[in-house]
Specification:
alpha/beta; Rossmann fold; five-stranded parallel β-sheet; 16 helices
């Protein structure tokens, strides 16, 4: 069995190497030649824990790159291309997905059955309204579509893949069950099979819930500030200790704690896409979810006002700690830091210096119009700044910041 994986971002590459590590032959494809060259040189083109050592072990053993496809009875294809719109990043864009499907359909290899397993995040009905009509139009037979939503968090994708208690796979026919079960037979998770529409819906149900919890926690932070004399960090820690809904073994504590709103490539895109899908196909406007997105957008002006109250001299050197949208990744898509820095610049702060352990280069190239200074040496920014604004909760900041330094910190994550 050879598995073909299209799209080698953090989802596609994690999936590729996880399968290769279980002695499944994997061929990874990506249109980005710079990415392919880096991978050929055994370098991960982004920051993600554990992947580099697995790549070095599996490259040219169980994992090959952009290799010519061979004939086989069952042609198995995972699609992990991005659905992020470069111009309108808060909605899903299926253009790359459609192009990938067309490429697979145009292949002339002989096969008994071709299975296309979609991992790219797509709103409910995408497979039925867009993908299946493409297959019908191609007049190709023996092609099955499955939808396998990813629940991998950037920064711990490898751990998430292997520690999952269950995965969800939407299928068209029962026969596909056996093939997918065989692919994952050496993994410990249970496979919950359902139909295509339900599997797409589960992905958005999950991310909308997480988005709502983040906004809920941030709104309660705002209420606490308004009421005054409330220890916000202590209140939320006590809240999280309630055994009725939290435990040490889950990750919900991350979402039920105030911070800088939700960002990244998944939550904003998914919650906005499910709102649009509900209106378009169901003629129903989800008012609660719309308020969640509205609140998340407004949170940055509230944060900016609070910073204004604390930092009066707008010429002082202000250190920005953290540029990635969350720790343990170099991804800056939807970065709260970018929005907060923009607000600070608009409010007249002229001397902003930013640090991040992994994301400085990505941030500088993604947000060139911000025109701020960058400092790779953390000690320099800690000592040289009049005030420090902690936006991303990298553990290095907790290790380095103590004693008198804490008096300089505006801790937007209640981290220290």
């Amino acid at each position: 069995m050879i598995v073909n994986i299209y799209g080698l971002g953090f989802v596609g590459l994690t999936t590729s190497l996880a399968l290769a590590n279980k002695n499944i032959k994997v061929v990874g494809y990506d249109n980005d030649q710079n990415k392919i060259e880096k991978l050929k040189n055994k370098k991960i083109p982004f920051y993600e824990k554990n992947l580099n050592q697995i790549l070095k072990k599996q490259l040219n053993k169980n994992f090959a790159l952009n290799k010519k496809k061979i004939n086989q009875s069952f042609d198995i294809n995972f699609i992990c291309v991005g659905t992020q719109d470069s111009k309108k990043s808060e909605l899903a864009n299926t253009k790359s997905l459609v192009n990938c499907i067309k490429t697979i359909l145009n292949e002339k290899n002989k096969f008994k059955k071709k299975i296309i397993i979609i991992r790219s995040s797509t709103p409910p009905l995408t497979t039925e309204k867009i993908i299946l009509p493409l297959i019908k139009k191609s007049k190709k037979k023996n092609i099955e579509i499955a939808y396998f939503p990813e629940f991998l968090a950037e920064g711990k994708a490898w751990k998430d893949f292997h520690n999952a208690k269950r995965i969800v796979v939407g299928i068209q026919k029962k026969e596909t069950k056996k093939i997918i079960s065989n692919i994952f037979k050496d993994f410990k998770f249970n496979i919950l099979f359902t139909n295509l529409r339900t599997s797409e819906f589960i992905k958005y149900l999950t991310n909308s819930f997480l988005s709502t919890m983040i906004s809920f926690s941030n709104e309660y932070r705002d209420i606490a500030i308004a009421l005054k004399n409330i220890n916000i960090k202590e209140a939320f820690k006590v809240f999280q200790s309630d055994p009725r809904w939290f435990s040490k073994n889950n990750n919900f504590n991350y979402y039920t704690f105030p911070g800088c709103g939700y960002g990244g490539s998944c939550l904003p895109k998914d919650i906005n896409s499910i709102i649009e899908t509900s209106i378009k196909y169901g003629n129903y406007e989800p008012k609660i979810l719309k308020q969640v997105t509205k609140y998340n957008k407004n949170i940055f002006s509230t944060i900016s006002k609070n910073i204004n109250k604390e930092i009066k001299n707008k010429s002082d050197p202000i250190g920005i700690l953290g540029l990635s949208f969350k720790p343990e990744t170099d991804d800056v898509r939807g970065s709260p830091s970018a929005i907060i820095i923009k607000h600070l610049k608009m409010n007249g702060y002229k001397n902003l210096i930013a640090h991040d352990p992994k994301a400085i280069n990505n941030f500088a190239s993604s947000y060139p119009n911000l025109k701020i200074k960058y400092e790779n040496n953390l000690d320099k920014i800690l000592q040289g700044s009049k005030k420090l604004i902690l936006i991303t909760s990298w553990n290095i900041y907790k290790k380095k910041i103590s004693g008198n330094l804490k008096t300089k910190i505006i801790d937007l994550r209640y981290f220290l």
